[in-house]
Design brief:
two-stranded antiparallel sheet
Amino acid sequence: MFIINPEDGDQFSDVELAYQKASGLIALSDEDWASVGPGYSYVNGTLVAPPAKTPEEIQTKLNAEKVAVNTAKKAELITVAIDRVSVLQDAVDLEMATDDEIAMLKTWKTYKVLLSRTNTNVQENISWPSAPDQ
């Protein structure tokens, strides 16, 4: 159940219902609320839909979402690379590294640098550098 204040369109949940009932608020069932959703307002006894988003607003939101996904993926890939470099660097520092580990250290460091240079502020699909073989 959601409550809408007809004066300003503020919305309240069931928890606030008992207190708000006395203030002349309008109660909507969960079913009614689901049919209207956030962004609606109550004006002169009528529920009014929010203005439709323009194609530009929709595209801007989609672009921002894609950038956020790209940025999150970059952070995840860099975290994996940092972890791998750390272990390999420890083996080198402790003079415990095999020849293969020494070679892999350079490969993982190169991968990490390439990732850091990847521009994630784009909406198109990114061509990510290939991760070294484990």
